């Protein structure tokens, strides 16, 4: 009976995994088909012979290499700064005692309840006042120390960073900066991986903010480039699926490379024992 339950469990989990992977597989398949083949019935479930044609069509409609580089610049820069500032903030809330600490942290968590759309107009007005229209810093700097990231790192620090380790480093004469970067940061690698993947994916897929800020075609990110391929006069969906595949593959590669640390960070940093 035990083995039957285990077999059923594996079967259900395998079915769920198959359902989740099916859209990605069909996207890869459609990237090698023509528009007529995509709309045909029954649908094609294997790769076609139009991959090269779709590639030339895609390259003729958008500069995907430039868009890819732009997305990398924004996403990597934002993720790096987010991990730096959020880990500092989370470590400070988990380690130090200062006046108003609990009230400040409660206020920080309260900002997570504000809908994203409610801040779009004030954010755009501020970026316009700063003269950051058509600049990447408008997409990198404003939210790099966000409430969720600080909360995430605080929880991980509380559960996985012993106070005795910091005290031992201070006895050895280490400064606060040395303690953080040489002693604490290596312990935070699983939390860095989990938070980094989440923030990287969110920034990579962001459409609204780049749409409002980036007016020059040469500064477009991948989501904006994909949007420019859609028109009212007819679309080459094979080329669009190929461009979507090019946009998704870096995310899949990043997750696979950091999946071990990602799962460790999810289980260790998000739950307080």
What tags apply to this protein structure?
single chain; 273 residues; mainly alpha; MetI-like fold; disordered C terminus
How would you describe this structure to a colleague?
Helices cover 73% and strands 0% of the residues. The protein is built from 15 helices and no strands. The protein is mainly α and 273 residues long. The chain has helices at 2-30, 35-39, 51-61, 64-95, 101-110, 120-130, 137-140, 147-160, 163-171, 176-187, 189-205, 208-213, 222-228, 237-257, 259-269. The protein has a single domain (62-269), classed as MetI-like fold (Orthogonal Bundle), CATH 1.10.3720.10. The chain is globular, with a radius of gyration of 23 Å. It starts with a helix and ends with a helix.
List the helices and strands and how they pair.
Layout: H1 2-30, H2 35-39, H3 51-61, H4 64-95, H5 101-110, H6 120-130, H7 137-140, H8 147-160, H9 163-171, H10 176-187, H11 189-205, H12 208-213, H13 222-228, H14 237-257, H15 259-269
Helix pairs in contact: 1-14, 3-14, 4-8, 4-11, 9-10, 11-15
Transmembrane segments: 7-26, 67-92, 104-125, 179-201, 237-258
Keywords: Cell membrane, Membrane, Transmembrane, Transmembrane helix, Transport
Subcellular location: Cell membrane
Give a concise summary.
This protein has 15 helices and no strands. The chain has 273 residues and is mainly α. The protein starts with a helix and ends with a helix.
């Amino acid at each position: 009976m035990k083995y039957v339950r285990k077999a059923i469990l594996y079967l259900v989990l395998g079915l769920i995994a198959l359902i989740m992977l099916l859209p990605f597989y069909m996207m890869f398949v459609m990237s090698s088909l023509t528009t007529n083949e995509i709309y045909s019935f029954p649908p094609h479930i294997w790769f076609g012979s139009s991959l090269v044609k779709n590639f030339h069509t895609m390259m003729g409609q958008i500069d995907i290499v430039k868009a890819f580089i732009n997305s990398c610049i924004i996403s990597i820069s934002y993720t790096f700064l987010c991990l730096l500032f959020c880990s500092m903030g989370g470590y400070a809330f988990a380690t130090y005692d200062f006046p108003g600490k609990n009230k400040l942290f409660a206020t920080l968590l309260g900002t997570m309840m504000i809908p994203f759309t409610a801040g779009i107009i004030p954010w755009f007005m501020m970026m316009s006042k700063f003269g950051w229209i058509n600049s990447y810093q408008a997409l990198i700097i404003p939210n790099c120390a966000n409430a969720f990231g600080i909360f995430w790192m605080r929880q991980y620090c509380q559960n996985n960073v012993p106070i005795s380790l910091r005290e031992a480093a201070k006895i050895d004469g280490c400064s606060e900066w040395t303690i953080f970067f040489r002693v604490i940061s290596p312990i935070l690698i699983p939390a860095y991986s989990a938070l980094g993947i989440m923030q990287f994916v969110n920034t990579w897929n962001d459409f609204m903010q780049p749409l409002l800020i980036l007016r020059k075609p040469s500064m477009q990110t991948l989501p904006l480039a994909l949007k420019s391929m859609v028109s009212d006069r007819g679309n080459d969906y094979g080329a669009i699926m190929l461009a979507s595949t090019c946009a998704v593959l870096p995310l899949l590669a990043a997750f696979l490379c950091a999946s071990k640390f990602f799962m460790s960070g999810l289980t260790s940093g998000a739950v307080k024992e």
